[in-house]
Design goal:
Blueprint (H helix, E strand, L loop, with lengths): L5 H8 L6 H14 L9 H4 L1 E3 L4 E3 L4 H6 L1 E2 L2 E2 L14
Antiparallel strand pairs: 1-2, 3-4
């Protein structure tokens, strides 16, 4: 029995690198992570760069929010106690 190359099989299933399955997984991660992203005005949640295999929050304060410290002082983390999804 002769099989097709692995790359052809993966492409047919959509599991090749940066393929439809990877894009779907990344988008689902973004949706699930959204409720844990601090929100005051919502800018941090709205300004993201998303590719097939990465999500980057682009606001300059995103890293400080993540680690909780800026210039040696604690950062105020805004929470969203009544999270409403606007994504769907």
């Amino acid at each position: 029995m002769k099989m097709k190359p692995t790359s052809v099989i993966k492409a047919r299933l959509g599991i090749q690198p940066n393929g439809p399955a990877q894009k779907y997984f990344t988008d689902r991660c973004r949706i699930h992570m959204d409720k844990y992203v601090p929100q005051d005005t919502g800018d941090l949640r709205r300004t993201i760069d998303m590719g097939a295999n990465y999500i980057t929050y682009e606001q300059p304060y995103a890293h400080a929010q993540y680690i909780g410290i800026v210039n040696g002082s604690p950062v105020r983390n805004y929470t969203t106690p009544r999270y409403r999804t606007i994504l769907g």
